[in-house]
Amino acid sequence: MPGIDLHDLQDSNLWLVAGEGNIEKIKRYLEYGGPNNSKMDINAKDEYGYTALHAAVSYSRLEAARWLLENGADINITDDDGDTPLHACESADMAKMLVEEFKANPLAKNDEGKMPIDNAYEEDFDEVVEYLKTYCKDFVPGPKEQDSDELLSVVLEELERARDKIKNGESLSDTEEEEEEVDSD
């Protein structure tokens, strides 16, 4: 378009600028970021079904999320995993705004049957969990899945313990120690 410099739109995309919280660039993408510099839908999805609102929420960009919602973003839109923006929430302030001001559904379940509180719990967003407990009275925290780094750490600790036992001439079998305890009783 003559007279309009769109160079700053070439090295980014709507989801990145929403994650950065840059409202002016969000506006420019929505106005000129579509094919042939056309308008973009505020609820446009990336290849994973992620929207600008998902990005703003997941990076705790409160004002960008508010702007998107005030300008037509769907509060309960889902990505390809069935996650709403509230499922991606990392701060209690954001969760409070989404639920109380914009009526996000705190009980929405994704494709795995998980509610936003479940995601927050698994990701250790404790303030979000505490806030969402108000709406999820039946929430019972389950065991957390260990990521590969945590699992590797546990395995390495066990290997180090075994190495120390061997070095000290101790048995690696717990059953021998249990048998000795039983014999001494």
Automatic annotation (TrEMBL):
SUPFAM superfamilies: Ankyrin repeat (SSF48403)
ANK repeats: 48-80
Alphabetical keyword list: ANK repeat, Repeat
Disordered: region residues: 164-185
Keyword Transferase: no
Entry's transmembrane regions: none
Start-end of Acidic residues biased regions: 173-185
Pfam family, one: Ank_5
Coiled-coil parts of chain: none
PROSITE patterns: ANK_REP_REGION, ANK_REPEAT
PANTHER family per UniProt: ANKYRIN REPEAT DOMAIN-CONTAINING PROTEIN 39-RELATED (PTHR24171)
Protein name per Swiss-Prot or TrEMBL: Ankyrin
Organism: Piromyces finnis
Source species taxonomy: Eukaryota, Fungi, Fungi incertae sedis, Chytridiomycota, Chytridiomycota incertae sedis
